[in-house]
Amino acid sequence: MSAASGKKAEATAGTAGRPGRGARERILTAANRLFTDQGITATGMEQIAEAAPVSKRTLYAHFRTKSDLVIAHLRALAASGHTLESVLTREDLDPRERILRLFDPPAADVSPVRGCPFIDAAVEFPDPRDPIHAYAREQKLLMTRLVTALVTDLGCARPAALAEQLVTLADGAASRAMVLDEADYGRHARAAAEILLAHALPPGRRSG
Q1: pLDDT per residue as tens digits for the range 56-104
Q2: Rounded CA gap, 43 and 66, in Å?
Q3: 197 with 99: CB under 8 angstroms?
């Protein structure tokens, strides 16, 4: 073997020993599509590796277990700005509008309609001690804290109780929109939210 061939072989071996460049992003993209289309528990790691495409060795180099991959998938969704909760941190909207935007139809024309991915994950992993369920719970509790802060800023009466009522409406509407495949189902919950806010807001802040 020539010196050049030897160096090439060493370089190839070194590359094979490391997770591929861009592989993590491809894995998460494939997992997102498959988890959305067919559910988490119905999707196998081998199927994700094939869709990425990466070797199973590379897949497990990035994610030691399927649970690790699912949590990374949920974290990526939370950071994407495309979940139900993301509107609550939009600084270009006033607090009342942020709350009411929880009931908007999806920005994209998605068919079939999907519900909240955190609720979906908790349903598929119902044990409260499961790390996936625990992460989903953290996101739903964060949603409540964000709404509580917004209604407090608005000067609403009993902000903690009001926030629980509003997030229950939002989560319920998202779930029913998915079951009924009706993207605009949130309009019903928005009407109820407007009534709740009208009764809780100080008189000078009840309109628009």
Answers
A1: 999 999 999 999 999 999 999 999 888 888 999 999 999 999 999 999 9
A2: 10
A3: yes
